[in-house]
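In this supplementary section we document a worked example of the pipeline. Step one takes a protein sequence of length 199 as its only input; no multiple sequence alignment statistics are reported here. Step two produces a three-dimensional model, which step three serialises into structure tokens for compact storage. The input and output of this example are shown verbatim.
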Amino acid sequence: MTLPLFKPEAPAVPVTAGPRPRLARVAGLDISLTGTGVATLAGTARVPTKGRRKDTILERHNRMKHITTRVLEEVGTVDLACVEGPVGFATPGGSTWDRGGLWWRIVGALLERDIPVAIISPTARAKYATGNGGSRKTAVLEAARSRYGAILESDDEADALILRAMGLHWLEQPLAEVPDGHRAALAGCAWPDREQVTR
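The serialised model returned by step three reads:
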């Protein structure tokens, strides 16, 4: 696990009196067959696996089961999980059925644990990170390292960290200040009912 080097999170509005508000437990998940990125309060992690086109249905099932189990272990108990939405079916390469199956397997497991789930598109994730929804993963990685002072070994972890930062910002507990153009990306996401998260 790679631990980010940023200061402990603080509420968006300084507390002057009374009890300090509870900090939200938010996870960011960039789901992938080859390397799922996970970001939580404990830091970032990557769950890597390998497969072959000639794998049997049982081998493919076991691979997705392994990824799901490891991801849920990394996530633990949280108030909100921010998941990157699935890449369009027209995207070349990869295994569409397996990618979709893994995505639903993890999202379904989160929902069965009564964890509210937010769905964030790749475009919104890139826009929040860099100000440009068309930015490549390398640009998002550099932006995450720069803004949050995080040591990140992969773009999977960077994506997960940005997703987590977006969830915290939506809950008015931003990890760092971001320009208005970046913050506008929050409006295009599928957020759960706020009452579900703050209960």
